[in-house]
Amino acid sequence: MPLFDRYIAVDWSAKNEPTTKAKDGADSIWVGDATRSAAGIRLSESRNPRTRFEAMDLLTTLLRGARSRGQRVIVGFDFPFGYPDRAAARISGAADWERLWSTFHERVSDDDRNRSNRFAVANEINRALRPDGPFYWGHPVGQTHDNLAPTRFGLNYEAIAERRIVEQRAKAKSVWQLNGAGSVGGQALTGIAQLQKLRRFGGFNGEMAIWPFETDFDGNLSSPIIVTEIYPSIFAFDRTLSPPDRAQVEAVAHGFAELDGRDQLGELLSAPADLSALEREVVLREEGWIVGVGHDALRGSVALPPKMAEPTSIAPAKYLRDPAAIYAQSFATIEAEADLSVLPPELRPAAIRMIHACGMVDLAADIVGDPAVVTASQDALRAGAPVLCDCEMVRSGIIRRHLPEATELIVTLNDPTVPALAASLGTTRSAAAVELWRPRLAGAVVLIGNAPTALFHLIELIAAGGPRPAAIIAAPVGFVGAAESKALLASNTLSMPFLTVRGRRGGSAIASAAFNAISKDLA
Predict the structure, then answer these.
(1) What CATH number should be reported for the domain holding residue 26?
(2) Are 361 and 471 in a shared domain?
(3) What does the pLDDT look like over 414-473, one tens digit per residue?
(4) Which of 194, 413, 438, 476 could cross-link with 452 by S-S, CB 3.0 to 4.6 Å?
(5) What is the residue range of 38's domain?
(6) Nearest to residue 514, comparing CAs of 459, 487, 476, 481?
(7) Which are the catalytic amino acids?
(8) Is the pTM of this model over 0.70?
(9) Is residue 262 in a domain?
(10) Do 360 and 288 fall within a single domain?
(11) By C-alpha distance, which of 259, 248, 255, 195 is closest to 225?
């Protein structure tokens, strides 16, 4: 019987800025996705997220969707999951892969604009590894690090090996190389940190296992989500497809599905027959393994994935292509069809953006707010106030370039203390997360687009004498509590600037659209 229903492959990137073009290819993230059913293998169109933040958000969505349908999933990432023997103890204090992952999660920062501190973290680790190190090497031209050499020249790898056992066998690049052609060190630092975040805060408690550490290779594949380390060219791929990164993730996803349909994927996930007992112990304790290494014949038996169907039979559609013209026509349509006269002039730009976000011109009748919300929000942002968001989707919808460089976009929903706090308060995680806003709430701009309980709790907190934000923009959506929480805000018993939407309608896109309209005029 096949082990999985869905197969996902991720070509990771340590790039320090967002990808600007869908076909950048080099140092760009690609996500391949295949499903298997009685009808055969279906290869979905690959995605090309612009940032690591977007990639993990996409992956979380895909995994949650798969689990909601009862699907079992295998996911492959093309960065090392571990370091050579004895490195984990020197870096994290314990000869254990999980302690190493926790250390990287604690030390590596990686924001929603793809900016990470990986070179600084590597520099500090090298400092701690003296006199046996340093081991990390490579950094961009123009950077200077006291303990991070620009090249490998003169470095000593006697105390800790340069390559893991699997890299020695596969003749793969060393995890210590951080920069330059084929380097994987930056991907490991950022990737492990992101995977540990997914394990701890992704909401997959008890459903996810990291191969081969938690599965003993193929000894225990019972978890519904298995996360593996892959090499991009593990299977033959279509070299006519551009960019190669896309071709490779499609080949991996399809290859996993094909082998699983032949009841051979378990064999691919098994330990090589010639792996000694001592090597196996090191691999499972801290080094990890690359799927397929040691199973060359099996990998070579996989066929190329089918080409995605080309829509050659469909006549080219005639549509507006100029972005400026599209926006102009959209806003003209809104102004012509929506009755904005019911709103104060100060709120009309935000209302137009809110209508544009949902496509419903009758939303104008439900938009209500204090005109002072515009200047209050702008003044707070200029003064350096943070933006407190109730969920990641709200934060993702904010146009960052409109804001001062130092503006913090804060989401506390995935803080590790939230589940226990919610249980102690007898409320939802969203409401409990608002409690963690207290130290930053005074003078902040609050943005709520998802959870009615977050808005209810915020109002209760302020009414009880808690810190007062500069402004509240709230559009929680739903059938339970959404209309009631917004009606309570609209009653303005708090006597503070606000903007909301009456009724059940709302959502993250509407909330962030209103905020974007207000912050657009900061300059």
Answers:
(1) 3.30.420
(2) yes
(3) 999 999 999 999 999 999 999 999 999 999 999 999 999 999 999 999 999 999 999 999
(4) 476
(5) 6-81+188-300
(6) 476
(7) 356
(8) no
(9) yes
(10) no
(11) 195
